[in-house]
Each structure stands twice: as structure tokens, then as C-alpha cells.
Amino acid sequence: MVEYRIDRRSGVATYLQIVQQTKQALRLGLLRPGDRLPTAREVVAATAINPNTVLKAYRELEREGLVEARRGLGTFVRRSLGAAPADSPLRDELEAWAAKAREAGLERDDVAALFTSVLDKHFKGDQE
Hints:
By secondary structure, the protein is mainly α.
């Protein structure tokens, strides 16, 4: 099951953080079709956010066809995204690279900017 982490200082709306984290879990294969998402009550207990925020995120995921709400049962994954399993050898390489970047004194935002510039170079026009 996915555990949501909310960064109140990120400037990204809370419901969008839930949507993005769910999509990331789908891309990494951490969530698969048939898996149940945490209930709104479970997310609220873990993150101290408003239940309506969770429901808004789940509605957005449902609108995108990624999940489906089953009355009285919960919200379930309908389909996966991408093909980057969490145990991919590329992940190990990326872990090593991130450790090197940190040792070199780069801050998280510096790494994100650098990584984004490389992504933009290699994946022109491949936006969702």
C-alpha cells in the first residue's frame, strides 16, 4: 500500500501531491491493478489533511481512468503506468548518482534542476 507524504512547503496543492505520488507508485509497480488505495480516513490519520482533499485527489485519479471507487469497498487501481519497476538496475545507478551529487555538495533543488534539464534534453515532447 502507498503511504502519502505531504510537503506543505512545496507550493504544490495537497491533492495534487496525492495524485502525483499515486502515479509514481503506479509507474514503479508499487501499485498494481486490483490494489486498494488507502481509505480517506487512513490518509487523514497519517497526514492530518482534510478528508475532502483526499477525495478530490481520488476523483481526479478516477477521472483519468487510473482508479475506480467501489461503493462500500474502497478505491482500487484499474491500470498501471509506465515500465520502471522499483527493482530496476537503473534505480541502483540513479541511487549511486544521487549519493555522488550529495557528496559533491548539491542541494535537493540543485539535483532536481540538473535532472530536469537532462530529462528535457532527452525526452523532448514526451510530456504526459
